TrEMBL record:
It comes from Paenibacillus terreus. InterPro entries: Bact_2-comp_sensor_kinase, HAMP_dom, HATPase_C_sf, HATPase_dom, His_kinase_dom, Sig_transdc_His_kin_internal. This is histidine kinase. It catalyses: ATP + protein L-histidine = ADP + protein N-phospho-L-histidine. It is a multi-pass membrane protein. SUPFAM superfamilies: ATPase domain of HSP90 chaperone/DNA topoisomerase II/histidine kinase (SSF55874). The lineage of its organism: Bacteria, Bacillati, Bacillota, Bacilli, Bacillales. Keywords: ATP-binding, Cell membrane, Kinase, Membrane, Nucleotide-binding, Phosphoprotein, Transferase, Transmembrane, Transmembrane helix, Two-component regulatory system.
Amino acid sequence: MLYSLKSRLITAFVLLFVLSFYVMTLLLFNESRSIIRSYLESSALEKMDEYGSFIDMAQAQMYDFSSLVFNSELTHQWELAMADPTLSPGEKSLANLNFSRFLTQTTNNYSIISSVFLYRDDGLRIGMNNEVVNDPSFKEEAWYRDFKERSIRWVPAHLDRYSQQYNNKSVISLLMPIGHFEPSLAKTVMKVNISSSYLLDPLNRIHLGENGTIFLVNELLQPMLSQKEYSMHADMLGKVRELRVGTNKQGVEYTPGQEKGDEILVYKRLVRTDWMLVGFVSEADLYGQLFKLRDSMMTFAVILLLVSVLIAIWLSHGFTRPLSRLVSAMHHVQHGDFAGAEAKIPAGSNVRNEVGFVTSTFRNMVGQLRSHIKTEFELKLLRQQAEYKTLLMQINPHFLFNTLELMSSLAMQQRTDDTVQVIESLGKMLRFSLRINDDVIRLAEELKYVRDYMSILEVRFGDKLHLTMEVDEGLEDAMIIKFILQPLIENAVKYSFRQSPEAYVNIRVQREKDRVRLSVADHGPGMPAELLRKLTDQAAYAQLDHILASRSREIGLGNVLARCRLYYGKLFGLRIESVAGEGTIIELILPFREEIAHVSSVDRG
């Protein structure tokens, strides 16, 4: 129970030992995370500043090299020679070799440059070390088309098949037009290559947490270096695109995540080429050690909680256990389970205090209450059985008087054969009626009794009475209470003759699943609404006192309803259809039983 003494003791220990520890842990964790976050922002941006300076230096050298080649007189002369149609092939080859030696000498002065090539529209390619090749296949390269069509000057890390003799690793390239500033109009394109590892190795030495990575991306947000992990952060590109067009040159952004907490994005824009340094790290990665410390402290808090609960239980066990048993016993009493209540409170309790006295007194009270209820139950059962017998005995004299009047009338009319038939039928009925100890009989016996009664009625009314009976097969062994059809037939015949000189009565016995339906239909005047309501009430409540006190001769139907209600309880059903001037159908709905267990009537509903 929430408000029990034991619960309050446990709550007090939990608040005392655990809540304070939890608050301290939470404050320590949040403060530590705040310190680490502040350190991340300053440290990561400082490292990005250093690396950004390195990138600017590398780009400056590549631009210086390109400018040197672009503005060289040898380059201008070579361009003129290639464009002069009057020069012989030998003279052009000599010009190509001289220009290749110039590229070699110039490249050797820049340690950052791994290779350089010039590509002409006529398919000529000139590189270092006297490399002069006429192969127009370079025009199909993506970098060449992007430069000519979209003026994209920087090529991200890739494998340059023409420079593999110098360096078989991926390179980053700067493309420059020769002889013209507009790439689409230039006849010659210079491609300056540097090894991507030259820029990647220093970047890999910058760490964000354990697994966080910093990427160098171009203006199209494509990675400039061979960092395959970049594709794993595709969901963050939208945020990076917003930062690229923003006004801030650097900063730290926090984006809500799903599995690993907030996603932290560190960025810095490089002014020279509009590149960006972008770093991605999750809170779970950045604060991994801190999370482990938090989990350890929470585990300790759980252990502390368990110890507190055990201590509270141990302290409260001595005087809360008897109270808990008493409360449990009260719940059993509330649901009528007196045996369960007595089992919860053992006899001869060793507790010698106020709680023990209350427990012992309550156990004695439960025993006395149980004995009293048992006595009342037995008395009610006996009273109910006596009431049922009284109702059963009420049927016999009521029917007997009517039959004796008929026999007297037949004797006065000297109708000997009819008199004998009535006497025989009456004798069978009386023998059946004297079996007052048989409350429940087979349906076949009830129908035999009804047929004897019908034979008496046919003698009494002759051709004016039309009786029919329909019985479904397989119902002979169904068990029902006795004397429930004859009163209904008697009323149906009597009221039919009030309406017409002839009476039509139909008896129907049928089975529907686990129910037996007994219906009696007549063509009489119908029932008044007040009488119909009264009968419905009698079906719902066994109005025994009213029926027994009634002096009316029209007690048959009420008697039947009362007995059905007493015996079957809620399993009994009644349906009455009555139309003024057209007749009435009374249907009794009983449970289908072939064998009746020896139980009291109070247990049948």
